[in-house]
Every structure is written in C-alpha cells, then in structure tokens.
Write a structure and sequence with these properties.
- By secondary structure, the chain is mainly β.
- 4% of the residues lie in helices and 46% in strands.
- It contains 5 helices and 47 strands.
- It is globular.
- 46% of the residues are buried.
C-alpha cells in the first residue's frame, strides 16, 4: 500500500488559474503598506559566456560604471562567477513594503536608470548589438514573483529579469535582489536575427539599492511567532516547475555531457513557518533535480540527476494565495511561495553531494561537509571556484538525448525537515528540445498543470510502495513489453524515494525460463559500476558492491524470455543501516516458460598491452547470445562501440585500433572495455600509448 496520501485534489485548488494572477492584499495588509523609492545603487550582471557561446553569441564589449561605495552593503548571498557592475542614480523606482517585508504588486512603478554599456556579437555574421545606459522597470505585476523589463536608452526591450529574490532591509534602508535570471526578450532576439533565442537565459542579475520612505503607514515590523517544534503540521509542497534550460557542457557533440537546471517553486501549505536559513545553518531545505526518458518501446529510465541544492533564502510570493505574513527570507511563511531561478539551482556555491543528507529525516549536518572542504568544523571555506562546467549540476550524456522520437520529462523534489506529507514534495513536467550544434533549446514553461508525485507512479503495469522499518520508502514498478510474437520483455524500475538504507540486491524468480537481453541502467555516467547479474537456482539476481541505489535515484533491471508473464514477487534488499529484504508484488515469468539457458563462461582478454597500433580482444561464448563490447575512458564516457548485436557461440576476436566512434585517435592513457553477453558482464583495462 502506498504510504502517502494523494496531493492531487489539494493541488488542483491551490494551482488553479487564479493562483497565477495577482492576489489582492487583504484590507489590513493594504492599509499597512508603505511606499518607498530606490534612487541610487548598483546592479551586477553575471553574463554566462559559456552558454552564450553555445547560442552563437559572444560578449564583445563591456563598459562598467563602478560605484561600489554608492551601494548598500550586501545582505544576500553572493552569486557564482565574475560579474560586471553598473551604477544607477537619479532613478524613481517605487515599491511597497508591508510590515517590513517587500511585496510584489501593482504598486511597483518607475525605473532604475543605469550608466554603462555592453555589446553582443553574433558569431555567424559578426554583427554587433550595443546596449547603452539601460533601464530596469517593473513588468507583469500578475506574475507569480518579481519580474522586470530591461530596455536600452531608446526604450527598446532587451532582457527580462525573472525568478529572483527581493529583500527589504530596514537597518540600512536598502532594497536588495539576487539570482534573477537574465533572459533575452523576443524583440532583442528578433533584432539579432534568431527568434529561437527568445526567453533564453544569458546570465544572472543582482542589485543593491538605497531606499527612502515616501508615504504610507509605518507599523511595527512583523514579529514571527515562535512555533519551534511545538507545531506538528509542517507541509511544503512543490508548487510549479517553471522552466528547464541547458546551462553548460563538458566536451563537444555528440560525445559531450550537458549540465541542465530548472526553476522550482515551493508552497507552504502547513500551519508552521519553515526555516530557510543559509547553507551552513542546518535548518534549510534541499532540492533534487532529475531528467527522465521514455523510449518508443515504453521503457522509462532516469538519465540524469543533480546533487543537492541547498535552499538559503525564501521569497514571500503569492502563488499559494495571499501570503498574509511575508517573511524576511530566513523562513518560508505560511501561505507563501518561494521560487528558485534556473540560475539559483545551477549555482555551484550551493550545490553539494547528496550523501551528506539523511533523506528520511531530510536533515543535513554542516560538520566536515563539502562546504568545509571536509575539515572537522562548520566553517564555510569552499564555494564554486575550481569546479568544472558540469560539476554538481543536473548532468546528462548527449548519448541519452540521441533518441529524438522518445519522450522526456524533468522532475524536482524538496527535502524538508519534519514535513508531514512528503507525497507533495515531488512533481514532474514533460519537456522537449531542439539541438543546434552544441546548443540545446528545452521547452518547459510554467503551467498550472504541474504533476504532483513521482513520474514513476504513472508508468508500468504493477506498482507497489515498500517501507523499511524506521526508514523511508521505495517505489517498485513493473512493465510487460512484448517486442515480438512469443517473446516477452520484463522491465523493472525501482525508485529510492527517501530510504537511507540503500538497495544493493534485487532478486527475481525466473524458474527455468531461457533469459536473454539481460540489462541494467542507472543515471550516473560511469558504466564501470553497473550491477552484475547472475542466473542461478531458478533466480536472476543483480548485485553491487560500490553503486547502491540511494535516495532520489531510479535503477532499471530487465530481461527477455519466450513465454508469458504472471503475477509474482521479487526481492529487494538493503544493506546500509541494517540489512532487510522485502517481498514486492510484481510480474515474473510464468511456470510454463521453460527451456533453461546455459550459464555463460567468458574468458575476456587482449594482446598486446599497451596498445600502440592495434590490440585484439578475445573472449568465448558457450552459446549464441546478444552481446555488447564497448570502450570507455577513465571517467566512464563511452568512446567506441565495437560490438552490439547477436554473436554465435564459440571463440570470438575483435580488433581495436585506438580510434573513437568519430574515427579520431584517442589520447594516451588508461581505457576500459566492457563485454556484456547474456546475463554476464566482464571488464578489463587497456593502456593506449602514442
């Protein structure tokens, strides 16, 4: 039985069409609003030159107007990467403050008039497009969060600033914002001759402005109730998946690995304010991101995952309703929403390994963590510097995106300490994409139809939730596929939802069925740690010693056989924190499926070693079977496919000439080749020298 209550009826109410329009404040809130103006300060733009290059753009020129001394001291966390600074003064931006908290509404008027310029160059034709003395002004007051339009000095639209954080600080009378996605306007994209660039994120924006009170009531600042652990109804839900975007890459098409990110919105549906503190404070949520694919055969695979995004500042948005008591950012107030931009969820300053979290309690400890560089304390010394372009982010191999006829989906989930209803912490959206060289344009806009719950709940013929004692749950789904007459393929997908006791063994009764096309899939990029399968005593058993199924991951297990499938049970075993085996309702080969197969005995080897010209790889097959022989580099990236098809029984020999799939000579170093034949997998290392 599924251990969670369904969130869908609640979501249908909260995420109605009205939830995306501006909610009028209550009379009390309206009366309490103050109007402030921001006339001077500093805006920092972090242009993502890597992603711009993939789009066919370059940053040709930047003329800053530095004025650090004229800006308030930063209160919000710094963003990743170098930035360019632009001063504004003599501006007339007006904004409302409600009991000491900034509120997004139609009362935002005026603009911030900046000094400085920058220019984009289109790579194809070398044209320059200058933006001089740009203007930032409020736009689309009906949006679910702050949204600004950026125009040039002639009033022509250039960018939009979306999905950022805004905070008002009474101590120094300042308005501050951070992690706004800087997206290209449709008008600017058209001027550059490429409408497909409209809406693409090209950077991140932060601003710091001096503020002055103009008029309105000046009530006491909002006092947060001290709920502590006495409130038992903490409930954070995923409110929306706003966008998914290509952010960076390692390597070139078709052998690259992409880094993706998405914008996420959460809603506080409970009765308690929920802590949203800085990463070195232990009371803050985490965000996990995933990418899935369903191929034309109907097979669902998780093809990419991120590490954990540490959530460090909460907005007081209106997506959940009126947001009656906005916060100062250190907690998500009851009834309020919080959006993390694509930039924020891609910021490596606040992404860290998943295994530092306990999923069942959604807790994290700063001691000797990633942010301390492993030092035995809680002093933050490590940020985004020194990282590669895809590190910690949602990673997916381009090979996994090669199937243009497949369907793709993105998913996010929140880790929230003490949350009473984890079933609404997770949700998914469909997406599609277009590729242009090294650039990918993903489609995934904000809608009211966010699908609450794991994507795996919608797939397969049999589903069962399994809970472990004093720990979390896993979801097991099975799908029966008939690829040919008289041939059945069984697909098993197991999602570790929040169990800290990781899965290390899966065993399925198969009787005397003649198995073929035995396979395994996980979302990481290292094929050398794939689980091995053994057929023995009427069972097929997959095991691992170094790649257990940990929380937030989904693994696939599969095989084919002649015959029919019937109801049965499979075994799922944990290891970490106490071994436990659960029987799970599923599909297995029927007792009528017979004709036992012969266990394989491979004798894998090669000569000569090292390889300077050609090496011969040898192995032996006791019977005819589908086989795959592939070569990988030390990072686990495939460089050459040598065999992929049916082989006869008997001794086999295959030559590798040191070339990759593109016909280019690989670099000197250590490589691995892996043979998968029927239920058995073996691997060996080989050294290549010039």
């Amino acid at each position: 039985m599924k251990p969670f209550r369904s969130f869908r009826p609640v979501c249908a109410i909260i995420l109605s069409a009205g939830a995306f329009s501006q909610v009028a404040p209550s009379p009390a809130a309206a009366a309490a609003a103050e109007i402030w103006t921001a006339s001077s300060g500093l805006t920092t733009i972090h242009f993502n030159t890597d992603i711009m290059s993939s789009m066919g753009l370059s940053l040709a020129e930047v003329v800053e107007s530095r004025g650090i001394e004229s800006a308030p001291q930063a209160q919000l966390p710094a963003m990743e990467g170098p930035g360019w600074q632009f001063r504004f003064e003599g501006s007339d931006l007006r904004f409302p403050v409600d009991r000491g908290r900034v509120r997004w509404s139609e009362d935002w008027t005026g603009s911030l008039n900046h000094v400085g310029q920058f220019a984009f160059r289109t790579v194809d034709d070398g044209q320059l497009f200058y933006v001089e003395d740009f203007i930032v002004q409020p736009a689309d007051h009906a949006s679910i969060g702050p949204r600004f339009e950026v125009t040039d000095s002639y009033g022509l639209p250039v960018f939009e600033m979306v999905d950022g954080y805004l905070g008002f600080y009474s101590e120094d009378s300042s308005l501050q914002g951070v992690t706004f996605d800087l997206t290209l306007s449709s008008e600017f994209a058209q001027r550059m001759g490429s409408t497909r660039l409209a809406g693409r994120t090209v950077g991140t924006v932060a601003l710091r402005a001096h503020a002055q009170w103009l008029h309105g009531d000046s009530p006491e600042l909002l006092t947060r109730p001290a709920v502590g652990d006495t409130c038992l109804n903490r409930d954070i839900a995923l409110g929306a998946l706003n966008r998914i975007e290509y952010w960076n890459r390692s390597g070139s098409y078709p052998n690259g690995v992409l880094a993706l990110s998405m914008a996420t919105t959460s809603c506080n549906l409970g009765e308690c304010d929920v802590e949203w503190e800085a990463p070195m404070a232990v009371d803050h949520p985490g965000i996990l991101m995933s990418l899935y694919r369903i191929d034309t055969a109907g097979v669902l695979e998780q093809i990419g995952i991120s590490e954990t995004k540490h959530a460090f500042f909460a907005l007081s948005g209106n997506q959940c309703g009126d947001c009656p008591e906005p916060s100062d950012g250190t907690y998500l107030a009851v009834g309020c929403s919080d959006t993390y931009s694509v930039s924020a969820n891609a910021d490596r300053n606040y992404l860290a390994p998943r295994d530092e979290w306990l999923a069942y309690t959604a807790s994290w400890d700063c001691f000797a963590s990633h942010f301390t560089n492993g030092n035995p304390d809680c002093e933050r010394v490590h940020g985004g510097s020194g990282h590669g372009p895809i590190d910690h982010r949602l990673q997916v191999s381009e090979a996994e995106l090669a199937d243009t006829s497949a369907a793709y989906f993105y998913e996010a989930s929140y880790l929230v300490r003490g949350d009473i209803d984890k079933s609404n912490n997770i949700g998914w959206q469909p997406t599609s994409f277009e590729r242009d060289g090294n650039d990918y344009l993903f489609d995934g806009e904000t809608t009211v139809d966010v699908n609450i719950g794991p994507l795996l709940e919608t797939w397969g013929d049999v589903h069962e939730w399994v809970s472990f004692e004093d720990d979390g749950s896993v979801l097991v789904a099975t799908k029966v596929i008939e690829p040919a007459v008289g041939q059945v393929r069984l697909e098993y997908a197991i999602l570790n939802f929040d169990a800290d006791r990781q899965i290390f063994k899966v065993s399925i009764p198969v009787g005397s069925a003649n198995l073929s096309s035995i396979g395994f899939n996980d979302p990481n990029l290292n094929v050398l740690d794939d689980w091995s399968a053994v057929v023995n005593e009427g069972k097929i058993t997959w095991t691992t010693t170094n790649n257990p199924l940990s929380f937030g991951q989904m693994f696939n297990f599969r095989y084919s056989f002649p015959g029919e499938a019937e109801d049965g049970q499979i075994e799922v075993s944990t290891v970490m924190g106490g071994a436990e085996t659960k029987l799970v309702n599923s599909k297995v080969p029927s007792t009528a499926s017979s004709a036992p197969g012969t266990p394989l005995s491979l004798q894998l080897g090669h000569t000569p070693n090292p390889l300077s010209n050609i090496s011969t790889i040898r192995f032996e097959l006791p019977n005819s079977t589908p086989a795959s022989l592939q070569v990988f580099d030390v990072s686990g990236r495939r460089v050459r496919s040598l065999i992929d098809g049916l082989l006869p029984s008997g001794p086999q020999r295959v030559e590798w000439d040191g070339l990759d799939d593109g016909g280019l000579r690989v670099r000197s170093g250590v490589y691995y080749y892996r043979l998968q034949a029927g239920p058995q997998t073996e691997a060996n290392s080989i050294t290549v020298i010039d």
